[in-house]
Amino acid sequence: MAHPRLGVIQSLEYPMALEPIKAKTDGSPAQLEIIEPLCAVFRRALKGEGLKYTPERAMILDTIIAFDGLFEADQLLDALKDKGHSVSKATVYRTLKLLESCNIIQQVLFDRDQSHYQLTVGNTGNTLLINIDTGEVETLEIPELIALRDKVCAAKGLRAQGHKLQIFVSAGDA
């Protein structure tokens, strides 16, 4: 029975997802997949290790989610301090390792001096064009590469969860 002030909640034709709905080309409705919230994934991983989901770890995860693309541990620490959170450098690095171990983030190695990280959420690919002369990094979106990846996986009876491709370039004679 519906609550008199709230009314009846209409049922949804499709479950809600945390990523955009992509139109299918065959005219059929898009098949949506419910994505588990990252905090729930992280909580479960921590519990499996006998660790707690602390406010500091929650703040770190929230700050990482707000980043767009690659980030460094020091950038994360600065962003936390800018928000008024006091988190130690050791806590940030330990949390990064924990997030990496449960596949929420991944380390992106292209610089000998500094580790970079990024979220590994969704089914899209991660293709980076890295200029080794300047250190500039560009994220590329190549739909054909994603289609090829998905085709290769489907042929083997598998479903791609993402990919990581790093293309290293330099200014040279082309």
Report on the structure:
With about 170 residues, the chain is of the alpha+beta class. It has helices at about 40-50, 55-65, 75-80, 90-100, 145-155; strands at about 70, 105-110, 115-120, 125-130, 135-140, 165-170. It has two domains: about 15-25 and about 30-120, Winged helix-like DNA-binding domain superfamily/Winged helix DNA-binding domain (Arc Repressor Mutant, subunit A); about 125-174, Dna Ligase, domain 1.
Give short descriptive properties of this protein.
174 residues; 3-stranded mixed beta sheet; flat; Arc Repressor Mutant, subunit A; 16% strand; disordered N terminus; Dna Ligase, domain 1; alpha+beta
Write down the CATH class of the largest domain. Mainly Alpha
Query: What is the gyration radius calculated from CA atoms?
Result: 20 Å
Strand order of the largest sheet: 1-3-2
Which residue ranges are poorly predicted, with pLDDT under 50 across at least 5 consecutive positions? 1-25, 27-34
Share of helical residues: 25-40%
Head-to-tail CA distance between termini: 71 Å
Q: Could you give the count of β-strands? A: 6
Q: Provide a count of the helices.
A: 5
